[in-house]
Amino acid sequence: MSARPEVVQLTEYVPLRLPADRLSQHEGERFWQRYGRMVAVEFPSPKTDHHWQLTAQGWVGYLALSPQIGLSLQPKTPLQNLFRMIEVAYALDMLHLGKEIFHCDTLPDFFEQLARLLARRIQQHYRVGLYQGYATRHQDLGVMRGRLNVERTLTMSQPGRLHCRYDEQTVDVEENQILLWTLWAILRSGFCSGPVYETIRHIYRILAGSVSLQVFTAEDCERRVYNQLTEAYRPLHALCRFFLDQSGPAFTAGDREMPAFLIDMARLYERFVAGWLKANVGPDFQVRVQERLNFGESGAQSFVVDIVLYDAESGAPLAVLDTKYKSPGAGPSAADLAQVVAYATAKQAAEAILIYPGAAAHPFDERIGPVRVRALPFVLDGDVDGAGRRFWDAVVRSG
């Protein structure tokens, strides 16, 4: 049995140095080629005092640096706030998560607890009965069923057989295929271990007996439309969306022995702010997320705006909001200002708001042409829900 790798902690944007002999040149190159976008890698040189230097680029989670060393990528925000961000961003409040999940000491523990919860909820659905839909079958039969394909029947080599087209009830539908694919992705990650891994594998095998393994993305979960018969799947698919969102960028063939679990903090921050606003702005406003704005004669070019705030009664756009997961420094950059003013102009909105996870050294509230532009903080330390209320109060405050 191989020894468990040593786990080294790496905090967002804080460089970490390792002695040159802790990592071979081949291991360093392999890690840089696969994960250089998530963790900046500087090779041993006089610049780094002949050390390896690693800097997490706004991603948190876990990566295998080598078979002997694992990297625990830690967020700048407290873990409990990170868990709350995940709950809001992926609408996991529908699952009524237990307190023990939010009292996890590490992000890997939180991942395992959610994975076990998903497996148990799927098992409950299986025991009650999976949703069944209809699938169209084409088959040569000895008796008539459904509709007869006369042309095909007349050309068949076997006399007495009928080529029929009919609909058949089956559990092998997308609602259940998403569950199976997510369990497969969790197992493939190599991150869950011990009893949790065995539980997930057991549920996977049960489900695989009647459901086919099909590829799905987090977006597939997000775009689903539910009816009275499938509504019970909504919270399960919300949790599937979380796992599929994190597992996508880190996996390649053969990664079973190199576990990886990553959260893009910029994307999570964007989804968290949008989710919080949707739940808290009240009936006078409407929030739309990831709104695409086409422009140009052919409409081939487009903007995608993080958040657009509308007047619920008139439907008029009031403001565009754009999240920036970075330090605001002394104030917004020229590029940030140009981007958000372009968004507001395209939407014919009077206001544009840049949202940062920290307060700028100097408040920014200026007019750029007809657009009022503000930079407001939605901070992630302390009480994030309280920070949300302060942020929203600032948004609706006039003058």
What can you tell me about this protein's structure?
The chain is of the alpha+beta class and about 400 residues long. The chain has 4 domains: about 5-75, no CATH class; about 80-130 and about 175-260, no CATH class; about 135-170, no CATH class; about 280-395, Trna Endonuclease, Chain: A, domain 1 (3-Layer(aba) Sandwich), CATH 3.40.1350. It contains 12 helices and 16 strands. It has helices at about 25-35, 80-90, 100, 105-130, 150-155, 175-190, 195-210, 220, 235-245, 265-280, 335-345, 385-395, and strands at about 5-10, 15-20, 40, 50-55, 60-65, 70-75, 135-140, 145-150, 160-170, 260-265, 285-295, 300-310, 315-325, 350-355, 365-370, 370-375. The strands form 4 sheets. A 6-stranded mixed beta sheet has the order 11-12-13-14-16-15, with helices on both faces. The protein has a 4-stranded mixed beta sheet with strand order 1-6-5-10. A 3-stranded antiparallel beta sheet has the order 2-4-3, covered by helices on one side. α4 (about 105-130) packs antiparallel against α9 (about 235-245) and α6 (about 175-190) packs antiparallel against α7 (about 195-210). The chain is globular.
Jot down its keywords.
399 residues; alpha+beta; 4 domains; four-stranded mixed beta sheet; 16 strands; 37% helix
Q: Give a short account of the largest sheet.
A: 6 strands, mixed
- From the N-terminal CA to the C-terminal CA, the straight-line distance is 67 Å
Structural class based on helices, strands and sheet pairing? alpha+beta
Pick out the low-confidence regions: 248-257
Q: Record the strand order, biggest sheet.
A: 11-12-13-14-16-15
Can you give the mean pLDDT?
87
Gyration radius, rounded:
26 Å
The dominant shape is: globular
Number of helices: 12
Q: How many domains is the backbone divided into?
A: 4
Per DSSP, what share of the residues sits in E-state strands of 2 or more residues? 25-35%
Helix content: 25-40%
Structure summary, number of beta strands: 16
